[in-house]
Design brief:
Blueprint (H helix, E strand, L loop, with lengths): L7 E7 L3 H12 L6 E8 L5 H6 L6 E6 L4 H11 L4 E4 L5 E2 L3 H11 L3 E11 L4 E5 L5 H7 L12 E3 H6 L9 H9 L4 E13 L7 H18 L2 H7 L4 H15 L2 H14 L4 H9 L4 H9 L2 H9 L4 H14 L6
Parallel strand pairs: 1-2, 1-4, 2-3, 6-9
Antiparallel strand pairs: 4-8, 5-9, 6-7, 6-8
């Protein structure tokens, strides 16, 4: 059994995010686990965020304001000012299930070797849940899936700051969380609690080709730098067949759809394959704009949510979401 956690630090960086800030703050102050400090870092906002924060009279809030310097720098500032070793993250436009901190703390206290914890999460538009993201649960599969995508939702994460310091902290660029998890991949174990504990607001990207392609290039670069295909082969964490599939999926999601088609073509002709792979292969023949739009729409998750609509996990997520939406937590 791990040592008992004697308090945690909740870290909320903000930058011109006043519209939803009250909900995020209240979702932390109303947690069933109460032994925490709540560091809110104002990264040089020019809106009325400071006024909103001042309306909360709670001794656990520690308010800091710095010159605008970017999310990575703001997070490192927060880590350096944190009293406790264990850090819970939240973003200004997201909110947490009231049992989140309790469940994450209990997991760490009862399981040795885990340094980064998160959970399943929902995507919502402020009025309703659009879909759930049921990420891999166990560390072995999470690390495998890191070869393709981020399996740890940042605003729902719970981690030991000493691990982050050991790899040099956050780096100040977009997708700083995925970059961090990849650098921690061989230093600790990961776990996702199989419950929806974080409610993430849908951030509608502009469907301009340049914007989406730029985002995809950044993720592709992070993957190639921190988890190249050669490393998968060297560590033998996947079979040769799995490596081929991952190479194709990496190109499909973040690289070049034509390269994905090329990688998959011989594989499809010679092996039994999944229905999902066939659909993805066919999608690569779509016009570029339609192809990008379908990927951004997260069609698979939306279909799974509709098919799973009456399940207990979906009902629980909706119940908690509407509690918050109807003002039982928001003030």
């Amino acid at each position: 059994m791990s040592d008992k956690i004697n308090g945690i630090t909740v870290l909320l960086p903000i930058y011109n995010s006043s519209q939803y800030l009250s909900t995020a703050i209240m979702s932390i102050l109303k947690q069933s686990y109460t032994n925490f400090e709540f560091i809110i870092i104002n990264d040089g906002s020019t809106d009325n965020s400071e006024e909103i924060i001042s309306n909360f009279k709670d001794s656990r809030i520690v308010y800091k304001k710095i010159e605008h310097s970017g999310l990575g720098t703001a997070l490192n500032f927060g880590l350096n000012n944190a009293t406790h070793d264990w850090i819970a993250r939240i973003d200004a436009d997201d909110f947490s299930h009231p049992e989140r901190l309790k469940l994450q703390t209990e997991f760490v206290e009862n399981n040795t070797g885990y340094g980064v914890i998160s959970s399943w999460y929902s995507i919502h538009n402020g009025k309703k849940i659009l879909y759930l993201v049921t990420t891999s649960v166990e560390s072995v599969m999470i690390k495998k899936r890191f070869a393709l995508q981020n399996e740890i939702i940042h605003p729902g994460s719970f981690f030991n700051k000493n691990l982050v310091f050991a790899v040099g902290g956050y780096r100040n660029f977009v997708f700083e969380d995925f970059d961090l998890w990849l650098r921690l991949r061989n230093r600790t174990e990961f776990y996702n609690i199989p419950r929806v504990l974080t409610f993430v607001r849908y951030r509608k990207d502009s469907f301009s080709r340049n914007d989406i392609n730029e985002k995809n290039k950044k993720i592709y670069t992070i993957l190639e730098n921190e988890f190249p295909v050669s490393l998968m082969e060297e560590e033998a964490i996947m079979t040769n067949e799995e490596v081929v599939l991952i190479k194709g999926w990496r190109e499909y999601f973040w690289g070049n759809k034509y390269e994905a088609r090329k990688i998959w073509r011989s594989h499809i002709l010679s092996r039994a394959i999944s229905f999902r792979l066939i659909i993805a292969f066919l999608f690569t023949f779509l016009p570029e704009k339609m192809f990008l739009s379908l990927k951004e729409f997260r069609l698979r998750f939306r279909i799974e949510y509709m098919l799973d609509y009456k399940s207990s996990r979906v009902k629980e997520a909706r119940k908690e979401f509407y509690k918050i939406l109807n003002g039982r937590i928001v003030q």
